[in-house]
Amino acid sequence: MPVYLDAASGAPLHPAARAALLAALDDGWADPARLHGAGRRARLLLDAAREAVAEVVGARPDEVSFTASGTMAAFLGVLGTAAPRRGTTVAHSAVEHSAVLQAAGSAGLSLPVDAAGRVLPVDVDPDWALVCLQAANHEVGTTQPVADVAARCAGAGVPLLVDASHALGRAPVPTGWSVLTASARTWGGPPGVGLLVVRTGTRWRSPLPDDERPDRSPGRLDLPAVVAAAAGLQAAAAEAAAEDARLRALVDLVRGARVEGVTAVGDPLDRLPHLVTLVCEGVDSEELLRALDARDLQVSSGSSCSASSIEPSHVLAAMGAPTDGSVRLSLHRGTTRGDVERFLAVLPPVLAELRAAVP
Question: For position 266, what pLDDT does the model report?
Fold first, then answer.
């Protein structure tokens, strides 16, 4: 049976999210902006979803918006927060998700990180438009010093955007942010739902054309998916402490394994509980992933993966780590010790086979 170890790219749907999705398909299909009975019922579901998310992230319901994806949330968060500011520089760590880097574009200022992927102390310039810092890295799991950077931003009067995609539902939500973004697929919600939370008092202006609807994200929401995302987040947050202990032990098993030419990267302690990247010497990342998949082990690379190619990882490069031969395991609530032990048993002979094939 295939073993799925790629939850960072999309976790299996949480049972609570599945139940909420099915219920909302029956009762949440109408437009929540309408005044008739079906519209009012849909509005109640949308309001309840906002309240549930707000409770988990520590915000007000009216600060919460849903978007069509985590990428869209990042785009709107970066562009919408930077636009009203007098400065143009968008400072970000060198290991941010590609969505943040693309949104920052030519205005981006890359802040260096250490060998664990943690941003170095930042002197925030009051003329910056925005600072972006993920709660924890999506490739190596290292948590970032959000509280320290938030204090520096507050002192300089510069807003802070925190990408909490891979930490939300798994770790405590950091404080001090002005804008928070996330993606439901990483906590066991359905794909196609992003989260954009803008604190009251933070200047934000939509970078998109005006829409007839007052929400920050244009168009009509996939309301059943939004309801499922909120239910999944509530359930994941409630299970976070127990899952942290269980999954952290499994990741420690991977990090502690002695496999020739294999090194675990990222902070060994101050990290997400479910994610680890290994750098394997002498092999090609794409060949390694295909060989593991042929043995029913579904993992990803520490690089940017697509169906057609694997691009070198900007995260590993910024850390000074090798960018080839990487494999990322990201565990979920269905991952067992047997799954991890199976990976550790298969990895050495696969590496030996691939290395033997190299001239």
Answer: 97
Residues acting as catalytic residues: 305
Instruction: Report the C-alpha gap between 315 and 303 in whole angstroms.
Output: 8
- The model's pLDDT over 111-134, given as tens digits with 9 standing for 90+, comes to 999 999 999 999 999 999 999 999
DSSP conformation letters of 280-293? ETTS-HHHHHHHHH
Taking the C-alpha atoms of residue 92 and residue 324, their distance in angstroms, rounded to an integer, is 24
pTM attached to this predicted model? 0.94
Which residues have CB under 8 Å from 282's CB, separation 6+? 261, 325, 351, 354, 355, 358
Q: Which amino acid does the sequence have at 98? A: S
Comparing CA positions, the residue from 201, 198, 179 lying closest to residue 132 is 179
Q: Are strands 310-311 and 304-305 parallel, antiparallel or unpaired?
A: antiparallel
Q: Where are the beta strands (DSSP E) in the chain?
A: 3-4, 64-67, 90-93, 108-111, 130-134, 160-163, 179-183, 194-198, 262-265, 275-280, 297-298, 304-305, 310-311, 326-330
The better pLDDT of the pair 309, 227 is held by: 227
Q: How far apart are CA 174 and CA 177, in angstroms?
A: 8
